[in-house]
Amino acid sequence: MEIHLPNVPMLNIFSHLDAFSLLQAAQVNKTWNEVASSDFLWRKLCLKRWFFPHMPRKCWHEQTWKQFFLCQTRQEHSMSRARPEDFVYKEMFGDFGVQGYMSYLSKSGLTMNPEEKSVVCAVTSKTRLTAWDIGEGSMIWVSPQQPTFILKLATLPEMHLVITVDLDATIKVWNCRDMDALATNNMLSPCRSLKAVVTRDGPIILAGAISGDLYTYRLPDLLLISTVHALEVPINQLYCSPHVKWVFLNKKEPHVLPKVFFTDSLLRPAEYPTPVLCVISFTLCVRAFWTPRREDRITLMYQRGAYRTAGFVTFDLEMERTEDKIIVEARVIASFKLSHHMESPEWMGVSDKNVIVCSSGSSLLVYSMAGLQLQRFQDYPGEIMKLLVNPVYVIVTFIDGCLEVYKWEERSHYLTKCYRLQNVRHLGKQSVVPKTLCDNGSIARVVTKSAHCCFLVAYVLKLCS
Hey, which residues does 186 pair with through a beta bridge? Predict the structure, then answer.
């Protein structure tokens, strides 16, 4: 016997379901299918999964929000469903330097055009900004030679913009089409950290200086919005929360306490004469990672003592507004210490299910937020040099150049191993391994053998090449 409920109560009930459950509910009958396919429900899921301040009310052209969600999810998981033979190996030669400054200009999420090419921006010869078509394996744009070395690079794929800062603290915005920069400004102190983000107030660039000042600029015109003296030391760590509500700043020093700034107070100095912030009573933070799809939870990794004892502490940020001020507090909700017999981890990340992944020597470890070890992967050819952790993948880079790709299981706390991408040229151990980055169709990094031997390599999915 079928049970018929009014559409409004059903819509309210269905609003608490995830995508998998909505798809199941749609199979019950025609009425349930109609409610479970509601644009209201699927837009809510889209906003939760891929926050973007300027998402249109309707998906473009004929797409519904349900179709958009399913299309995006398929794109996200295209890499985890692949096999090693589905990738084409590419090498792009140039003087990328030992630091390998590189960032994707193509989008890893909310791709308006599923056929969009994978494009990477990189610094070559230390004084030129270049753009590379990863699928074609070719350089598609190069800037004029700059007066001095480019030290920092950030991209804003949503606006097809690249931001650079050079040795003279000159900050520039590029579109990688015109020869000249779109805008130029000067910081009063050399830059140590750089991040481009889209906020509800529009796109901005955050720059942490060696002086401890945090500069906030509007994009694309580089209008200075605010300058805040945030730390008494250089700002080496700068991490934004998923929806850019918070900005975390730190430098690993024994007597330095991290600070978290309320982003609105940086964007609207007239409304907030004094920046709203929280000082976290925690020292020697090595890494920090915001919980994906949650706005107020951050996990810090520390290393302390002669034996570099390591552990993790997770905080929830709580904000209280009164008539005359805003109070922000960081409350510890979980913590644990790793065994002193374990090699101290260098890299970490967090899933949206509050699961922590970290590397220790040649092992990949997965813990609950409270410290219960859930998984250990250790059948590796050598030391883990880097981890790339996002809400969908974990990509492990080894010292010999091999990559191992994992995916987070949708309905559990665990990682699933997908495949290994071999070092095609078998170049042996690398002294420096810069970041490994990916979008929905490729994985790219700079291979560095020495100051005079470095090049850009990429693994491109055949369907995207």
Answer: 170
Query: Strands of 237-240's sheet, edge to edge?
Result: 237-240, 246-250, 259-262, 277-279
Look at residue 18 in the predicted model and tell me its pLDDT: 84
| Rounded Cα gap, residues 39 and 127, in angstroms | 48
Residues 217-269: tens digit of each pLDDT? 999 999 999 999 999 999 999 999 998 999 999 998 888 999 999 999 999 99
Amino acid at 191: C
pLDDT digits (tens, 9 = 90+) for 417-439: 999 998 776 555 555 566 788 88
State if pTM tops 0.85. Answer: yes
Domains of the chain: 7-76 (1.20.1280.50)
236 vs 388: CA distance, rounded Å: 19
